[in-house]
Amino acid sequence: MLLDKETILPYLAKNNDYETPDTSLSQLYSNIGLAIAHGEAAVGAFWLHYNRFSRVLWHKTALLPAAISKEKSAPWRVVFGEEQAELGYFAPDSFLLSVRGEEKIKLLREPDDMLGETWYLKKTPSVVLLRGFTKNGDARDPDEFSPFLLGVRAMKGRLTVRKDGLAAIPQEGETLLAFSFEVLETDEKRILKKLRSAPDSVQSAAEITKKEIGRLASSLHLELEEEAVPIAARAVSGLISNLTKAPGRLRGHLAAYPSRGYSSHFLWDTCFQNLAYEEMNVEIARECLLTNVLSQRADGKYEQFLCSTWGRPHYTQPPLIGWAALRVYHKAPDKAFAATMYTSLKANNDWWLQNRITPIGLISCPHGLETGQDDSPRFDDGATVACDMNAFMLSQLEAEGFFAAECGKKSAAAEAKKRAAAFEKKMVDYLYDAEDNLFYDRRVKDGSFVKLVSPVSFLPLWAGVKLPEEKAREMIEKYLLSPEYLFGEIPFPSVAYHEPTYRSDGWWRGPTWMPEAWLMLETLEKCGYAKERDEALARLYRMLVRDGKCHELFDSATGKGLGESEQGWTCAIFLKLASMQKKKG
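User: That's the sequence. What structure does it adopt?
Assistant: Structure tokens below.
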């Protein structure tokens, strides 16, 4: 069964669940999402996906006539009853609601405690403007509240303002309402202009969304068995709806949230989500990387994550952006992009080698948060010289050299190559344990090995660190391909099955995470284990198809999905696995 930009729409129209913040209806790069309360005559919660955590502003966006509770959902249009009511986006943070019938429609009911002060700027039968504040919900955010502006236009019918919210009175048996929302950067003239530009029907709005979905999926081409179509459609839908044109510090480029309910732009999430974006539409992948690059600190540091008004500068994230940038560049060479990435990577590499350097010349990691492996037992005894972070560092030094050469900077390219070669030697000298024939982290406090078997031990090989071939093969076959350690039915647990700290559902202490699993697939391929890579790929693919959702992580004993249900990196990696399954078949 072919899944491409021409055939994706019918599949996206199936199996939609818009009840939760993570799955709320959010299209055209919007910061708002709408919950559809299944079995109720209502458009449910009005979610704001913004500044780290999503929050509800109103629990009931619109109460519909009770007789039309049944609904049919698609990413571009929600139909209630027998087309008695319809809902669809026509622009970012802007949607239409059409209701046929003589009953009054109640709007914006049951405000949440995250909603601060609100007041009306404009109250006419045709247009209402509501200004207010929403609590940001994270004590680390320097701004406790964010301003917002909501406009409602009655295109058919009329509006009335009541103490408990708005109401829309139908005209000749029909109500057609346009909504538009702005947060942080609000402008009355702009929002009125957006309301006036609304199309005259939900069907027309749906065509706008369909066209944009087609553009975003312009290079999608997958041959799938029928049982895999639902999760593939969910993956595509999740990746598209996780994209946003956020204001403030994220302005100017697309931000790729890990999920709709987790509204921050993370560096390493983006690097893995781009595995799909660069296949779907390479311009999207390029823009998502540039969001990190253009927010880079003057000293070269990337923040752990970015939000519209704040970021988390205390920690950074793995130096993976060079790996992701190389893929984008090879997909669509662009000299301006190469120049931007060279400057950014040079500054970031310098930051690492100045701010995280240790006496032995490798970089340290103060906390699991910096690696992305938040609670890994690798850090139970404190800071480490970590295999993964140094492998990523080596990879990024080589990316710096590549982009320098592409920009015609021969001496800079040679210098980066020299730094990478010296760094690689230090990794072998310090992180390789000849007795166990394995790479381990070392504790910063005393230099002792953290003798924990995990996929991290193989990332030096992924980065190209050279060992005698027989030693590398012995390492992979003894540990990475062993059912006792890392190659069970659900392969590549974050901690090997035999370890005392292993818990199959214990966050970074045993479950399988798709980003780490992907890197293990790349490692096997680079080291000449094509057959074994294909078997691991097939096991992971079967696990995802069985689960049916793109969960954040997976129980490595049962394959049960855990965490967020439409996590961007899992969406992306599933699509890659699906395409590779066909190729190897």
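The radius of gyration is 25 Å.
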